[in-house]
Amino acid sequence: MHSFLSVTLCISTVVLSLTMAPGQETGPSPSSAILNADLLDRRVDPCADFYAYACGKWQAQNPVPADQPGWGRFDESAGRSEPLIRGFLEKYAAHGGARSPQEHQLGDYYHACMDEDAIERAGLRPLENVMRAISALQSSADIGKLVAQLHRHGVNVFFSLRPQPDYNDASRMMATLEADGTAVPDRDFYLRNDHTAAVLRKLYLKHIQSMFELLSDSGHDAAVESKAVLNIETVLAAATIDRANPSAPTKTYRKMSVAELSALSPGFGWRSYFDELALPAERRVEVGRPQFFQQMSSELQTASVEDLKVYLRWYLVHAFAGLLPGAFAQEDFSFFGKTLSGARELPQRWKRCVRLSENDLGDAVSRRYVEAALGADDKARVQQIANALQKALGDDIEGLPWMSPSTRQKALQKLRAVSIQIGYPDHWGDDSALPINPADAFGNSWRAREFEFRRQLDNIGKSTDKEDWPVSPASTDASYNDQRNSITFPAGLFQAPFYDSKADDALLFGAIGALIGHEMTHGFDSDGSHFDAQGNVNNWWTELDREEFGKRAQCLEEQYSAYTVVGRLKVNGTSTLNENIADNGGLRLAYMALVGRLAGKEPAPLDGLTASQRFFLGWAGMWCQNRSDVFSREQAAADSHPRGKWRVNGVVSDMPEFQQAFHCRPDAPLVRRNPCRVW
Predict the structure, then answer these.
(1) CB under 8 Å to 193, separation ≥6 — which residues?
(2) What average pLDDT does the segment 622-633 reach?
């Protein structure tokens, strides 16, 4: 067992051996998509602003595209993936040559999505049946069946239902009800009283009114209807959890029978809802934040039936605006893309259809993407890096001075049980039974969403599939799942700035290695520490351990709360805390893993940079970004991650290894006198 002190001394010794002395001869300048040394801004002192040193030139050369609210290295990766996906979708849509059934399906979906003339001719006919069902609503007591029908097609009015592992027995899947039903995901958008929020809500009302006018409602009626929608959404938002004051799952979830749920929330027809979904009434469900469903019930009993109809109509057209005539897509963009996020132009049609294809036919698209983009050895190499990070975290836990032996033993047990999903699943989903019509864009998405919803519902009551993927393998969305105790790194991450098959270990461990470490630490943070090795809710920490963890977390909370987003707006150190802990811990663990990989050997400098310098540049290069002030404010309110500048400068300022690598003076801006550290 290593002590905290001995581990630190060992790392420091190797850091010094990796640091290039002034005038030291450098090695060759290799080609790497992760790091282009010519893009480093040598005019900036890395010890004063490492983000500007690593990203300044990239920012100058990469202005925000007109169809984006912001642009960063993650967006750049998606920008490379989307044309690749477009290529094979266009090939399959061309109808030339033989096509497999899956290629036929992909091509017909994309063809229909791209056929704007057909979409214009169809007008609002695709909505007629469901609009008639909404118009026929007689009372709030009859709303359960209608809500179930909308939920089946991804229109999450009022709340959402999804299967997830039982909090008390993660080996079994159960139905879970979650707060939902607001078109703007930021709770504070509806509740803040400042001038900016008030202006945005007025613009939101105007947007909703315009959408109703596109549905042929009169201007007067549409204005009244928009206020009814905002009132209902505000009630729902007020009942959701405040991101700044998160609660443990044991305090926000409760297992209930349908009878108990009906007693809690009598204003909603729960039995008709579950009957419509063909879920047994005797089955218990997990209810997220019961107070939300009480408030929802009260609103259903108070609001007029006409207002409820208005809300359902609005949410339907909002959910499918991209597949309705162009005026709807443009109006939807004018608020959500332009006003709320700061983008200037609606993305080109092909980009929107690529994204819709991936959303509705995720496995089929991802399978073709993996075949086209992933090298045979890449998955194995990233798996090796993940194994090295898992070992580093184990060594770190072994040496933590603040963790008690009993908690340490359970932490190591949980770490050993982590499932690491790399690249793509071993078994792909089968969408072959999903009917796709090359002349029915709306209907294809409508059916695809129902197909996936039904597939998910079929898991309820069954054993949990630990190998189930939570994201599309073509995405760049790495994640950790508390209830499955698993981390997922999709194939979309197997490209710059995260990965390059030609890159040296220092770059890879600083980039994709640190991301892996980031996700691993989530299993042990303020949320993950409430789940045991099997994914069950279980407080396996002692009170003293949790107190010691809290002290170290408080240091990071205060550190990040001092950082500026834009103007006078500060980072919310509370709502970003878990991500900041993961960034700090992930990079530190990746450094420990690199030290272990190098085993005391000193690689020759590359591009004039030592291995330790390249490691930190691998981290910094992932977070280069440009954002409009509007988008920065929106993200500060809705996103649990801080902006890229603080994901770089905030982390390295807490690492003596960085300061040694770049020969920082003790009084340099990125040398914290009392650095924060959890892992």
Answers:
(1) none
(2) 92
The answer, yes or no, to whether residue 25 has pLDDT greater than 80, is: no
Determine the length of the chain: 679
- Categorise residue 327: left if φ over 0, alpha if ψ from -120 to 50, beta otherwise: alpha
Distance CA 541, CA 430 (A): 41
For the chain, how many structural domains are there in total?
Answer: 2
* 285 and 413 housed in the same domain: no
Provide the sign of the torsion angle of the four alpha carbons 114, 115, 117, 122, taken in this order: negative
In a domain? residue 280: yes
What would the pLDDT profile of 120-158 be if each residue is shown by its tens digit? 999 999 999 999 999 999 988 899 999 999 999 999 999
Which string of DSSP letters, residue by residue, matches 126-144? GGHHHHHHHHT---GGGHH
Range of the domain at 380: 4-61+374-426+467-529+543-661
pLDDT at 638: 79
Contact indicator for 96, 420 with CB cutoff of 8 Å = no
pTM: 0.90
Q: Are 319 and 336 in contact (CB under 8 A)?
A: no
* Average of per-residue pLDDT values in the chain: 91
Tell me the C-alpha distance between 277 and 145, whole Å: 8
Whether residues 293 and 381 fall in one domain: no
pLDDT band at 378 (very low <50, low <70, confident <90, very high): very high
Is 522 or 13 the better-scoring residue by pLDDT?
Answer: 522
DSSP string, 469-509: -SS-TTS---EEETTTTEEEEEGGGSSTTT--TTS-HHHHI
Looking at residue 412, the DSSP 8-state letter turns out to be: H
Two tokens, residue 541 = 């920490």
Using N-to-C axis directions, what is the helix angle for 441-457 and 349-360, rounded to 10°?
30
**Amino acid identity for residue 654 in this structure:** D
